[in-house]
Amino acid sequence: MLGERLSGAGWAVRGTSRYDEKLPPLVAAGIDPALADPDRPGTILDLVGDVAVVHYLLGSAAGEAELLEAIHGPRLERLMEKLVDTPVRGFVYEAAGSVDGALLEAGAEIVRAAGVTWRIPCEIVKADPAEPAKWGEEMTDAALRLLSPAGESK
Fold first, then answer.
1. What angle (nearest 5°) sits at the alpha carbon of residue 64, between those of residues 25 and 134?
2. What is the 3-state secondary structure (H, E, C) of the chain?
3. In the sheet where 53-56 sits, what is the strand order?
4. 112, 113, 95, 111: which is closest to 103 by C-alpha?
5. Distance, CA of 145 to CA of 47 (rounded, Å)
6. Which pLDDT tens digit goes with each residue over 11-28?
7. Are strands 32-35 and 53-56 parallel, antiparallel or unpaired?
8. Cβ-based neighbours of 67, under 8 Å, separated by 6 or more
9. 6 and 143 in contact (C-beta within 8 Å)?
10. Nearest CA to 5 among 49, 55, 47?
11. Contacts of 93 (CB under 8 A, 6+ apart)
């Protein structure tokens, strides 16, 4: 889906996980794997030197409520503040999934505010990850809109 369509367009796709055992499925999907932890934004920032678009796909993240609040709140805010000093040209936030809707909306608002404050082109995607075909299409279209000079996905 996302990796195939973007790779087919000549783009490399990197995916991250906090856990080594979650990296092999990324490789199997043709995605360049890397370890990173959204609770430690520096681990993400270390990987964006050659990244055009960041997809923050944590709408179905699992963990303690405190961690989920942090990665959709202050950690996300710190990441957005630091992205302005990187080559990243766009940011896609997954605003749907199993995480509490209020947290996802708060995260989406952080992303929108960062887009205005630092002029970071952003997309908020509310496609349901339980519908993988539609989700993948909307995520890919969001990336292509951010990368296209005309802001068009097709």
1. 45
2. CHHHHHHHCCCCCEEEECCHHHHHHHHHCCCEEEECCCCCHHHHHCCCCCCCEEEECCCCCCCCHHHHHHHCCHHHHHHHHHHCCCCCCEEEEECCCCCCHHHHHHHHHHHHHHHHHHCCCEEEECCCCCCHHHHHHHHHHHHHHHHCCCCCCC
3. 53-56, 90-94, 122-125
4. 95
5. 22
6. 678 889 999 999 999 999
7. unpaired
8. 39, 61
9. yes
10. 55
11. 56, 107, 108, 111, 122, 123, 124, 125
**Which among 122, 98, 100 is positioned nearest to 110, based on CA atoms?**
122
pLDDT in tens, 38-73: 999 999 999 998 899 999 999 999 999 999 999 999
Residue 64 confidence (pLDDT)? 96
Location of structure tokens 């796909």: 57
Per-residue pLDDT reduced to its tens digit, 116-142: 999 999 999 999 999 999 999 999 999
In one-letter notation, the amino acid at residue 94 is E
Q: CA–CA separation, 60 vs 75, rounded Å?
A: 16
Residue 78 identity: R
**Residues found in the chain:** 154
